[in-house]
Design brief:
The protein has about 290 residues and is an alpha/beta fold. The chain has helices spanning about 1-20, 45-55, 85-90, 105-115, 130-140, 145-165, 190-200, 215-225, 250-255, 265, 275-290, and strands at about 20-25, 30-35, 40, 60, 80, 85, 95-100, 120-125, 170-175, 200-205, 225-230, 260. The strands form four sheets. A four-stranded parallel β-sheet has the order 4-3-7-8, with helices on both faces. The chain has a four-stranded parallel β-sheet with strand order 10-9-11-12. The protein has a two-stranded antiparallel sheet with strand order 1-2. α5 packs antiparallel against α6 (about 145-165) and α6 (about 145-165) runs parallel beside α11 (about 275-290). The protein is elongated and about 65 Å long. InterPro entries: ABC_Transporter_SBP (IPR050902), ABC_transptr_periplasmic_BD (IPR002491), Vit_B12_bind_prot (IPR054828).
């Protein structure tokens, strides 16, 4: 009887140990959870969207401003903005997991939350392929892998279709403009630069290490992009995109290759980035068709 009891206890202990969730986040830090998270606070809009896509939207109890997709995300309690968190509001939600954004959240805020004993997973998907991996990891963290793995598989399949369609196309030198004042673009490590490459473009500021470097008009003129693509802040084409028309010597202006992609489709590291990629690819294909006949 004693041997049976000891065996039972050993099996229970082994089961508990097996239930532990152990994952490395995007900084390489190891996170351990004793069980799937049931109360998650998301500290970035893309994290919130990916949690819903991974089937864990119902477990998100707090998030930040601009977490507006899907519709259900708008009803979640706010804990400030991603760069100006209300740490007391975060703690008051009693989360068993916080998912933060490395390049968006202040390191001091993340350190403070960790000091409270709250597990923190850091997200930083810099390549398109990373989105699928994020979905899978979020599914593991939340215990929703069945949904998350399906979403990741669909993402990879669609990505493969786009890559097949545009691989081998002639390169299009591209300037991606995030904002006008200050004039900002995307550097090598930004996911939008990866989208440009997927579409057969070459980011004219792709050698810059900064995520969102400030650039000058003179630098854009010197780069002479064949296409200029802007995002802005909303669903409408920003008026300042047409400000480039005064520079007739830029190839993109001369050929009317001034294009717009809605920011929510391309500036968030979520499954919807493939919608943005498809639009950007179509714009670069238009630019190819506008090349003079040889």
């Amino acid at each position: 009887m004693k041997a049976v009891l000891l065996l039972s206890l050993a099996l229970c202990g082994g089961a508990a140990q097996a239930a532990d969730i152990v994952l490395k986040d995007d900084t390489g830090a190891t996170l351990r959870l004793p069980a799937p998270a049931r109360r998650i606070v998301s500290l970035a809009p893309h994290v919130t969207e990916n949690l819903f896509a991974a089937g864990a939207g119902g477990q998100v109890v707090g998030t930040v401003d601009y977490s507006d997709y899907p519709e259900a995300a708008k009803k979640i309690a706010r804990v400030g903005g991603y760069s100006r968190l209300d740490l007391e509001a975060v703690a008051a939600l009693r989360p068993d997991l916080i998912i933060a954004w490395e390049s968006g959240n202040a390191p001091g805020h993340v350190a403070k939350l960790r000091s409270l004993g709250i597990p923190v997973f850091i997200s930083q998907p810099n390549r398109i392929e990373d989105v699928a991996e994020q979905l899978e990891k979020f599914g593991q963290l939340a215990g929703t892998s069945a949904v998350a793995n399906g979403a990741a598989a669909r993402f990879r399949a669609r990505l493969a279709e786009i890559r097949k369609q545009y691989s081998g196309q002639p390169r299009v030198p591209t300037f991606y403009q995030i904002w006008k004042q200050p004039l900002m673009s995307v550097g090598r490590q930004q996911i939008i630069s990866d989208v440009i490459s997927l579409c057969g473009g070459s980011n004219v500021f792709g050698q810059v290490e900064q995520m969102a470097p400030k650039v000058s008009e003179e630098a854009v003129l010197a780069a002479n992009p064949e296409a200029i693509i802007a995002s802005g802040m909303g669903d409408s084409r920003p008026e300042w995109l047409d400000d480039w028309k005064r520079w007739k010597q830029i190839t993109a202006v001369a050929r009317d290759n001034l294009f717009f992609v809605p920011p929510e489709l391309i500036q968030r590291h979520t499954p919807r980035i493939l919608e943005g990629a498809a639009r950007l690819c179509e714009h670069l294909e238009t630019a190819r068709h506008r090349r003079p006949a040889r």
